[in-house]
Amino acid sequence: MQDISINGLSGLSYLPGYFDRAGQEDLLDQIRAIVAEAPLYQPVMPKTGKPFSVRMSNCGALGWVSDIQGYRYQPVHPGTGQPWPAMPDALTHLWGEVAGKAPPPEACLINFYDQGARMGLHQDRDEQMFEAPVVSVSLGDTATFRVGGLSRKDPTKSFRLQSGDVVVLGGEARLAFHGIDRVLAGTSTLLKNGGRINLTLRRVNPA
Ligand code: MD6
Ligand code: FE
């Protein structure tokens, strides 16, 4: 586990290779079963309706959604109206290992990146509980992750996230701006057709 200092903020941890290849394959099988039930869909930005370049789904009690009305957490898939599938045990276990005293995660956002997809600089701030960290898992092709400070104008650092890597944004870095600049094609054999999956675990409501 590496603690990375960014703009003087503590609380950003990087755990390279947290999941070994067998662990990544197990997790991927479970994500495939989840998206068979709760299909990936292309969300749009609030107000403008501009589509995201990533496709999304969720698992856990709550899922993060974005549509013309805004960003929010909700208990059902916006297309099927069905509850989100359960969160895999491996993810609840990961949270127990890295999230300190935080209550269990309620939501796991699944982001799928095709070649060319990216994620603009943003803060994760739709939760009612910033005391709990956000924990991310990367699967598939390597991505360039950029992280800055509490203001969008703060300087940023970028580093590569490989399949199996975990990032924790907690403490002072919980609200740091971050994003994905690009996905590097052909860097992993985990997904047959390439691309990248990112899972972010969140606690939404106070215990
Ligand atoms: C991604 N990650 O890796 C996007 N958010 O595809 C995030 O937006 C993120 O990695 C909160 C905490 C860690 C993250
Ligand atoms: Fe984020």
From TrEMBL:
Residues 104-205 form the Fe2OG dioxygenase domain. InterPro entries: Alkb, AlkB-like, AlkB-like_sf, Oxoglu/Fe-dep_dioxygenase_dom. Keywords: Dioxygenase, Iron, Metal-binding, Oxidoreductase. Substrate binds at W64, Y71, R72, Y73, D126, R152. Its cofactor is Fe(2+). One of its GO terms (molecular function) is oxidative RNA demethylase activity. GO terms for biological process: oxidative RNA demethylation. Fe cation binds at H122, D124, H178. The keyword Metal-binding applies. It holds the Pfam family 2OG-FeII_Oxy_2. It comes from the Bacteria. GO terms for cellular component: cytoplasm. It comes from Roseibium aggregatum (strain ATCC 25650 / DSM 13394 / JCM 20685 / NBRC 16684 / NCIMB 2208 / IAM 12614 / B1) (Stappia aggregata). The keyword Electron transport does not apply. 2-oxoglutarate binds at N111, F112, Y113, R196, I197, N198, L199, T200, L201, R202. Binds 1 Fe(2+) ion per subunit. SUPFAM superfamilies: Clavaminate synthase-like (SSF51197). This is Alkylated DNA repair protein.
